[in-house]
């Protein structure tokens, strides 16, 4: 079609001119920048590092504590001592010193298996951090996809408006030529110029929408919001999505479900730790000490010593004001809440999948209908323009055909964009959005 060829030529020329002055930002490049720069992703990575650093047997309480100590006590006393024979000894300013230093070990060897439950809980906390990082990445990459294709759609609509402007300019020239040879009234020229100005006004508003969309995408990419760029001019839709496959993948890979499963596991380990309070606690203590003492008055004025100290401490809880029962009941309620939340999350995921898939199917069909409408509108505009040039139709009829073409182009662009949105949403919910 002649009109379609003109439209494609306008898009190609405009895109080529823009590309010379602006950076062409490909989708994969935008995703890469977001993965490197986005602040939410950085925060999630740091949170995961904290979980990894905390996941140690030492933090679980499995290792002994070893410490060095020094105790130095001194005093100066006015001292009077009564001996066994009844005699007294008196010394003013008597100095006494007691010095002890050494290395000690304290090790809890049994605490009702609390330390093992704690270590398992730390493992789950690290896995939960990994799931939360995946969720943060999926969410931010989904934002990149949505804003990127919104910008593609806005550029497509700008190209459609540019086509309308070219046609309106051609109409103004035709009207002026017809007026100059006396085949048209001045009113026809004025109406053509008014319609041209309307199209130019639409273009200015569309440019503003594009600038706003660029600022929003730059913000997500965590770079200078004034960075100028262009995006590709096509929206490719995956038409092969199947609900059953998405549901199966989502049950296994959805990061929110994964995080909630881990929350339930953490609650189970918390209950085990609370129940450990019913069992005895056994500790081993040991030390190697050096001692020194001095006294100005007494039978022994100086003494030195060194050696090993060791022992075992065991304690058995008998009664603590029913706090043990209370804590166990609370831990069981928290575990029950975690199970309820998991089921709620699964139902919510299923609902979101159903709604998104229904919208995906509807807009996929709608985009096909609008594609046919666009072809018809292009043919209609082509015929109308030819008739307008020979004066067999009125300017109003021509403008109507022109507006129908523009509306058809916008509707088709919107349908493709909405289909892409729901495709992205479905893949995000399934946890397999590629990045």
From TrEMBL:
A Pfam family the protein falls into: OEP
Keyword tRNA-binding: no
Assigned protein family: Belongs to the outer membrane factor (OMF) (TC 1.B.17) family.
Main location per the UniProt record: membrane
Organism encoding this protein: Flavobacterium buctense
Localization in the cell: Cell outer membrane
UniProt signal peptide: 1-21
Keyword rRNA-binding found: no
Superkingdom of origin organism: Bacteria
Name assigned to this protein: TolC family protein
This protein's UniProt keywords: Cell outer membrane, Membrane, Signal, Transmembrane, Transmembrane beta strand, Transport
InterPro entries hit by this protein: OMP_efflux, TolC-like
Coiled coil: none
